[in-house]
Amino acid sequence: MKDRAMTMDTSEFDLDRYLRASKRVDLSTMEWARIREHPVTTAEARCLTYMMDIETHTVVFLRDLLATRASFDPEVTAFLSCWVYEELWHGEAFSRFLGEAGYRVAPTFEDVSGDDPFPTRVDRNQWVRQKFGTKGYVSHIGTLFGSALFRDFVAVHMTWGAVNELGTLTGYHRIIAKTEHPVLIQLLQAVIKDERRHFAFYRAQARMRLARSRQARTITRWALEHLWAPVGTGVRPQSETDFVIHSLFGDADGMVAVKEMEATLGELPGLEGSRFLTDALEGAATRLGRPLGMG
Ligand SMILES: [Fe+2]
Ligand SMILES: [Fe+2]
């Protein structure tokens, strides 16, 4: 096997293995018919709707990524090719779960079943993207400028990806810890397996790129502390992001999970002691007027 030591550290993430094993999340064993046997709370449905939208929106995030120097790196683009495919299926999984649970969402309030043709909720996805519209162009242009100005801008994107994947998989663990719905637990456990691999790739890329460049460390830390916001911010209304963040991380156990994420991210070069996740949680609590640490 050829040595790939000049680029990706294969001891931290085996890209070859990931690419060969990549597949859509397996929904064939999902017990769709049993979903209605257990209640899905309104709060759970709201969080799952948010995550459905964010998972489905991944391809638009990919547009921004591919406009940067990330597109020059064959390892990164190979990963992204499989990553966006897996995220599409996560969105579908949540869409079908909510549909089978009897939840209908704006703008057309359509019925969705586990065995409907793919993709579901086309109207909703168009609606979400149109509402995102101008904000999307602004972030796209900002990304283009950042990439043109800084050679190490890919480090920002890879670290950003690591933060978002870690937040997502930890959020799914928080839903599992709180829910009593056995089919939802089954679904989330399948999705989490993918999210772990996604996080591992971004973390390996971030570590490599941050370790070799002081400029990358400086810009990345600044970007996370000044520009980063929880995944889905801007794609959905701020009130929805705040609700989801507070629901999943606003209680005592959730706050412990946030500290653990900060400790994990703090192991990356240049991110020691950063607390932008805590800041985001506190911001959500302040806007909602709901204190942290209750329950
Ligand atoms: Fe996902
Ligand atoms: Fe992911």
CATH fold title: Ribonucleotide Reductase, subunit A
Structural class: mainly alpha
Can you name the CATH architecture? Orthogonal Bundle
Which class in CATH terms? Mainly Alpha
User: What sort of overall outline do the alpha carbons produce when their principal axes are compared?
Assistant: globular
Query: Termini separation (Å)?
Result: 53 Å
- State the share of residues found in helices, binned by percent: 55-70%
Q: Cofactors and ligands present?
A: fe (ii) ion
Strand content: under 5%
Q: How many E strands?
A: 0
Low-pLDDT sequence parts: none
Could you give the order of the helices and strands?
HHHHHHHHHH
- Describe the largest sheet: none
Supply Rg.
Answer: 19 Å
Concise overview:
The protein has 295 residues and is mainly alpha-helical. It has helices spanning 15-21, 42-66, 74-100, 122-149, 153-178, 182-211, 214-226, 238-249, 252-265, 276-288. The protein has one domain (31-288): Ribonucleotide Reductase, subunit A.
Report on this structure:
Helices cover 66% and strands 0% of the residues. It has 295 residues and is mainly alpha-helical. It has one domain (31-288): Ribonucleotide Reductase, subunit A, CATH 1.10.620. The radius of gyration is 19 Å and the shape is globular. Bound molecules: fe (ii) ion (FE2) (2 copies). One fe (ii) ion is lined by residues 55, 87, 90, 168, 195.
Topology readout:
Elements (H helix, E strand, L loop, with lengths): L14 H7 L20 H25 L7 H27 L21 H28 L3 H26 L3 H30 L2 H13 L11 H12 L2 H14 L10 H13 L7
The protein binds fe (ii) ion (2 copies).
